[in-house]
């Protein structure tokens, strides 16, 4: 006679055997009419990622062709205005680098004022007519012939452009000939239909269009 505990053990074993049989049946069941496929054992099989479909072209986005791209269309100033400003910045740098010991310092200052705003012209005039500078140039009989070339555009905003200009001084003097070269950040501001020099600073000092304290020769 089977006792209660033994009876429960037999029932449990029967259930386990039945579940095992079901598992074997499912593992051997043909897949879509093919041969029986064994289920993977051990760690779960990796799922192969589905290749993402390429993004469809956005009909609202017009392709931009480098050859047809017009940068001036997106600037606050026209191509002609940029060219006029660049010409003024370069001519100003040439004038700034051109002076001679026997020239009236006031005349030199007035020549520079023709390129500048009123306030900056007055600031430059104070610098170039400093007695110590004037006396030094006269003592050494300094004659400087200037040249300049536009190096780059540092920034463009509405009514303001900052150029970096390389100015060269070809100097003859009692102390001997020299050639001095320096890069300047020249800020121009739009005045009416034209441009005026608003500031001049050494290029490596940086410049964002703010008025500066001027520079000396």
Adjacency order of strands in the biggest sheet: 1-2-3-4-5
- Name the poorly predicted regions: 209-217
CATH topology label of the domain at 77-205: Nuclear Transport Factor 2, Chain: A
Beta-strand residue percentage = 15-25%
SSE order: HHEHHHEEEE
Number of strands: 5
The CATH architecture of the domain at 77-205 can be given as Roll
**What structural class is derived from the secondary structure elements?**
alpha+beta
**Main beta sheet:** 5 strands, antiparallel
- Overall residue-averaged pLDDT value: 80
Radius of gyration: 41 Å
Identify the CATH class of the domain at 77-205: Alpha Beta
Overall, the morphology is: elongated
Number of helices: 5
List keywords for this structure.
24% strand, 217 residues, Nuclear Transport Factor 2, Chain: A, alpha+beta, five-stranded antiparallel beta sheet
